[in-house]
Amino acid sequence: MNVLVTGGAGYIGSHAVKHLREQGHHVVVLDNLHRGHRAALDAIEQASGKHVPFEELDLRHTEAVTSALVHHKIDCVMHFAALAYVGESVTEPLTYYDNNTAGTLSLLQAMHDAGVRRLVFSSTCATYGEPASMPIVETMPQSPINPYGWSKLFVERILIDYANANKDFAFAALRYFNVAGSAADGTIGEDHEPETHLIPIILEVALGQREHVTIFGEDYDTPDGTCIRDYIHVEDLVAAHSMVMQKLNPADQRFYNLGIGQGYSVKQIVDAAREVTGRDIPAQMGPRRPGDPPSLYANADKLRTEVGWTPSYTDIHRVIETAWRWYRNHPDGYAQP
Ligand SMILES: NC(=O)c1ccc[n+]([C@@H]2O[C@H](COP(=O)([O-])OP(=O)(O)OC[C@H]3O[C@@H](n4cnc5c(N)ncnc54)[C@H](O)[C@@H]3O)[C@@H](O)[C@H]2O)c1
Ligand SMILES: O=c1ccn([C@@H]2O[C@H](COP(=O)(O)OP(=O)(O)O[C@H]3O[C@H](CO)[C@@H](O)[C@H](O)[C@H]3O)[C@@H](O)[C@H]2O)c(=O)[nH]1
After folding, report:
1. Could you give the C-alpha distances from 206 to 265, 274, 300, 323, 328, in angstroms and in order?
2. CB contact at 8 A, 58 and 6
3. Which of 148, 163, 177, 224 places its Cα 20 to 30 Å from the Cα of 244?
4. How many angstroms separate the Cα of 270 from the Cα of each of 64, 125, 195?
5. Could you tell me which residue ranges the NAD-dependent epimerase/dehydratase domain spans (predicted)?
6. What average pLDDT does the chain have?
7. Cα of 15 to ligand 1 centre, how many Å?
8. How far is the CA of 177 from the centre of ligand 1 (A)?
C-alpha cells in the first residue's frame, strides 16, 4: 500500500516508517519538524539504502496536504502527528486544540478532497481520564482530565461523524498506553526535547546526564505507593498498526486499546533499569505530579481477538534493554555530538 505517515519524523512515527517499509509498503512521511528529527529519516535511509520520500508540511495546510496525498497516490494515512505533553496541554490548551484537533480536521478535509478513504489514528488511554476500575476495556466511559486527552477524544468523535456520513471511509483509533523502547537493531530511538517520560529520564540518570530521578508520589493506593502504567514496546505498537491497517474494510469504525495488559509501578521500573544498566540510579521521592491517575493498564483482548496481535515484549527488562542500547550509543539523541 501507499501509506502517508504523519509525524513520521517523531519517535513513534519513525518506528512506523521503518516497520511499514520492512513490510513492503511504499511510505511517504509528512512532518513539520516542530518536534521531529530529519536525522531519524536519514538513519532509516542509511540503514536500508533506500530513499525516504519526505513532505515537510504542517497538517493545517490543507491544500498542500491534499496535493501530497494526490501526488503520492496515497491509499491509507497513519496519523501520528500531534503535540503530546499532558502538562503543556494544561498551560497551552488552545495550542493543543489547534494542532491536534483542528490539525486532524484539516487532514480529514485533505483526505476527503483527495479521495483517501483509510485512516489509522493515534489516540490515547488519556481519553479515559480516571477510570473507575482496572484493567481498562474499550467500552468504559471516556472522560479526560486534561486538554491533551480532550484534543484526542474530540478527534475520535469527529471520525465517527465523518465515517457515518461517508460510508466508503474506514478508520481505526488506537488508544495507546505508555510507549517505550527503541528499534531492536539500534538504528532509531527516542529523542524528545523536553524529555518528560519516565524511562528516558531514568536512562539519562544512568548516563550521568541527570543527578537523580524524582518519583512523583509514593502515597498512591497501589501496592508500593507509586503509579502503575502499562508499557508497550514501540515495535509491538507499530506492528499492531500495520495489522489493523490490513484489516480495515469500508465503513469500519474500530477502537482498540494498545497495551500489553500488565502494569508496572514507577519503583519497579527504576529497579528494572538498575538491573539492565548495572548502574546506580539515584531516586528521590517527590510530590505527586498533577493530573496523574494512580493506575492505568489495558485489557487488550479486543485487539488480540479481532486482529490476532500479541506483544512480543512482555518483560520490562527487554523493553528497557532496547532503550538503553539507543541512549548509550546516542547520548545526544539525534543531535550532532
Ligand atoms: N509516546 C507515548 O507514550 C504516546 C502515548 C499515547 C499516544 N501517543 C500519540 O502518539 C503520537 C506520536 O507520539 P510521539 O511520542 O512519537 O511524539 P513526537 O513528538 O515524537 O512525534 C510527533 C511528530 O509529529 C510532528 N507534528 C506535530 N504536529 C504537527 C503538525 N501540525 N503538522 C505536521 N507535523 C506535526 C512533530 O514534528 C513530531 O515529529 C502522538 O499522536 C501522541 O499523541 C504517544
Ligand atoms: O520523572 C518522572 C517522570 C514520570 N514519573 C511517573 O512515571 C509514570 C509515567 O510517566 P510518563 O512517562 O511521563 O508517561 P505518562 O504521563 O503516563 O504519559 C504517557 O502515556 C500516556 C498514556 O498513558 C500518553 O497519553 C502520553 O502521551 C504519554 O506521555 C507516571 O506515573 C509519572 O508520574 C515519575 O515518577 N518521574
Report:
1. 19, 8, 32, 12, 9
2. no
3. 148
4. 45, 23, 17
5. 3-259
6. 97
7. 12
8. 14
Write out the three cell numbers for 322.
Answer: 532496547
pLDDT in tens, 209-265: 999 999 999 999 999 999 999 999 999 999 999 999 999 999 999 999 999 999 999
User: SS3 breakdown of the chain: % helix, strand, coil, rounded to 5?
Assistant: 40, 20, 40
The one catalytic residue in 148, 176, 256, 327 is 148
> How remote is the CA of residue 289 from the centroid of ligand 2, in Å?
9
Using alpha carbons, select from 79, 5, 19 the residue that is nearest to residue 47.
Answer: 19
Q: Which residues lie below 8 Å from residue 317, measured CB to CB, with a gap of 6+?
A: 272, 275, 276
Nearest CA to ligand 2 atom 20: 178
Residue 260 CB contacts under 8 Å (≥ 6 apart), including other chains: 177, 230, 231, 232, 236, 298, 300, 311, 313, 314
DSSP 235-269: HHHHHHHHHHHHH--TT-EEEEEES-S--EEHHHH
d(C-alpha 94, C-alpha 99), whole Å: 8
Any bridge partners for residue 213, and if so which? 283
Distance, C-alpha 306 to centroid of its chain: 21
Intra-chain end-to-end CA distance of the chain, in Å = 37
For residue 314, what is its C-alpha cell? 512482555
List alpha helices for the chain, DSSP H: 11-22, 38-48, 62-71, 86-91, 93-96, 103-114, 147-165, 198-206, 234-247, 266-277, 301-307, 316-329
CB 7 within 8 Å of CB 79: yes
According to DSSP, the β-strands at 170-176 and 118-124 are: parallel
Q: Is 297 a catalytic residue?
A: no
Q: At what angle do helices 234-247 and 11-22 cross, to 10 degrees?
A: 60
246-260 burial, b if ≥16 CB within 10 A, otherwise e? Answer: eebeeeeebbbbbbb
Q: For ligand 1, atom 1, which residue shows the shortest CA distance?
A: 179
